[in-house]
Write a structure and sequence with these properties.
The protein is built from 10 helices and 8 strands. By secondary structure, the protein is an alpha/beta fold. It has a 6-stranded mixed β-sheet with strand order 1-2-3-6-7-8, with helices on both faces. α8 links the parallel β6 (about 165-170) and β7 (about 195-200). The longest helix is centred in the first third of the chain and has 19 residues, at about 1-20. The two termini are about 15 Å apart. The chain binds 2-acetamido-2-deoxy-beta-D-glucopyranose (2 copies).
């Protein structure tokens, strides 16, 4: 037993060093909690429910189990762009959960192919040189989602106080979740905001990633989570890899933990 633990620890170290390179020396890896990942995967999955009344009343197929007792506060639907998000209070987590849905299965390909290479200057303060994917950026910043989400968070805080905020999303929804999290921290000055995404496409260049990491050192981007696939939408694996820079490191750590636990 002892030997096995050592072996696991040794493998973990190799894995972390291989994956994260120099960064490991500077800061400890973000804490990855598999229960939380499964829970957030369920929240992410629920947003794909087609029956909106089931979603609103939290009686959908995915709305039980780990997410029981969730109270929906704001359901935001952008019909024109086929986007959706919700905000509510998770009593188990004592946190506000914000979940984003990307487009329907066949149209994410369009978003990515049409818009992937169109980079946009990112005009957040102090982030010169940062460029982002214009489609994903606009899907959050230039639709009804941003106002809806901010409004939902305000309402939830009025009812439950300044509880932590957990933002999540799958695929393109993960891309929007990332922009949202950064927005809440930089533009709204919220402090306790965390991000966990699933199968998220890349959203910006290297400069953007490094700014992102400064604001969100503990963001977790799950990319290959065999253990939680049942908790995710069926087309979890359906997202392309291209040459944008991911915000760094989290993947490998997560991957490894999934094998360990
Ligand atoms: C992991 O997250 C769950 C909530 O989903 C929490 O109850 C638990 O305490 C966390 N574990 C650790 C080690 O932080
Ligand atoms: C935002 O939307 C407006 C009108 O819908 C459009 O003219 C503008 O180009 C969009 N901005 C971005 C960055 O996509």
């Amino acid at each position: 037993m002892e030997r096995r633990r050592w072996l696991q620890a040794a493998v973990l170290m190799c894995f972390l060093v291989l994956c994260s390179g120099r960064e490991l020396k500077d800061k400890p890896a973000p804490v990855y909690n598999s229960t939380l990942a499964k829970t957030l995967a369920e929240y992410t999955s629920a947003v794909y429910t087609n029956d909106l009344s089931q979603l609103f009343t939290w009686t959908c197929e995915k709305c039980g189990d780990l997410t029981e007792g969730f109270e929906m506060v704001e359901l935001i639907i952008d019909v024109q762009n086929c986007l959706e998000a919700y905000v509510g209070f998770a009593s188990d987590l004592n946190a506000i959960v914000v979940a984003f849905r990307g487009t329907q299965e066949n149209s994410i390909q369009n978003w990515i192919e049409d818009l992937f290479w169109k980079q946009l200057d990112f005009d957040y303060p102090g982030m010169d040189e940062a460029k982002v994917h214009s489609g994903f950026y606009s899907a959050y910043h230039n639709t009804t989602l941003r106002d809806g989400v901010v409004n939902g968070i305000q309402k939830t805080m009025e009812a439950y106080g300044n509880v932590p905020i957990m933002v999540t999303g799958h695929s393109m929804g993960g891309a929007m979740a990332s922009f949202c999290t950064l927005d809440l921290i930089v533009n709204y000055g919220l402090k306790d905001v965390t991000l966990m995404t699933f199968g998220q496409p890349r959203i910006g260049n290297a400069e953007f990633s490094s700014h992102f990491k400064k604001y969100l050192p503990n963001a977790i981007r799950v990319t290959n989570a065999h253990d939680i696939v049942p908790h995710l939408p069926p087309y979890y694996h359906y997202f392309p890899q291209k040459t944008y820079h991911h915000f760094p490191r989290e993947v490998c750590v997560v991957l490894f933990h999934f094998r360990l636990l």
